[in-house]
Amino acid sequence: MFTRHFASLKGDTVKAIFLVCLAVGVVGVSYGSLAMAYGFPLWVPLSLSTLVLAGASEFMFISIVASGGNPLAAALAGLLVNARHIPFGVTVRELVGQRAASFLGCHIMNDESVVFGLSQPTAEQRKAAYWLCGLGVALLWPAGVLVGAAVGKLLPAPETIGLDAVFPAILLALVLPALKKRTTLIRASSGAVLSLAAVPFAPVGLPVLLSLLGLLTRKK
């Protein structure tokens, strides 16, 4: 069934999906190497990359825990980052499949699969692009973690080659376009200021949650 759907995609779309999934794998290398450098056993990042399958949440989780934060606070911060999946789920409800397949279809829902799925002109191509990208990410993200784990063992300090900066740089690139809106900029800046101000006083992981208060800021 999937082979027939995938055949409906144009070559340029398949190539773009492959390159994006490959980039996700490269970020996975960064994640895996950092997890090793932080002292986590391999099963932790590998399990997260397979079962959670949400890069931002996973990075945040290991960073908070490695800094001495409470795992529960780390998990809540991860849920906060992934709150965008709620509207995603509503938007792609026709693409995730039905019955048992829908469980896997929901699991592979991420920024990349949603973007490719919604950008196609026909219903068949939308579903094909969503699944191809989602499955590609689901395979290459853990694969990148395994490669990164090996690199992390060879390089106790991944920052020496900049692996620690890969994910923050990608997040910044994704966020910058949204900051063109004045209201978004004000609320994001307010949340960042609140979070930074709380760092010396609040337990590790809590400042990220406090940044939500920035949403209460109103444009003047």
TrEMBL record:
Q: How does it sit in the membrane?
A: Multi-pass membrane protein
Membrane spanning stretches? 16-39, 59-81, 128-149, 161-179, 191-216
Which keywords, in A-to-Z order, does the entry hold? Cell membrane, Membrane, Transmembrane, Transmembrane helix, Transport
Ribonucleoprotein as a keyword of this entry, yes or no, is no
**Which is a Pfam family this sequence falls into?**
AzlC
Q: Which cellular compartments is it found in? A: Cell membrane
Q: Does the keyword Transcription regulation apply?
A: no
Give the UniProt family note: Belongs to the AzlC family.
- The protein's name is AzlC family ABC transporter permease
Organism (species): Kosakonia sacchari
Q: What is the lineage of its organism?
A: Bacteria, Pseudomonadati, Pseudomonadota, Gammaproteobacteria, Enterobacterales
